[in-house]
Amino acid sequence: MASLIPCPHCGPRPKEEFTVRGAALPRPAPNAPVAEWQAHVYLRENPRGDYAEHWHHSGGCRRWLVVNRNTATHAVHSVTDAAGERP
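The structure assignment produced for this chain is given below.
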């Protein structure tokens, strides 16, 4: 059985319908120093355990979502619409 992601708009859907963008990290300010932007774009940790990532439901509602999951077990803890995560 395929892993299911509980899309808040479409319900449980197979993970193959989604594209992962990466860590759901706050962006630096537009006028932040170049070094801060370089670190944001290129330097990533690879943690073991709970992690928040941006996923795009490319095979469904086409919404960006924040998926909180465990990187070791792949258990999904929560999924929210990324539009609601904006400061």
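Interim note for the steering committee: The chain has a mean pLDDT of 90. Residues 4-85 form a domain with the Folate-binding fold fold (CATH 3.30.2270.10).
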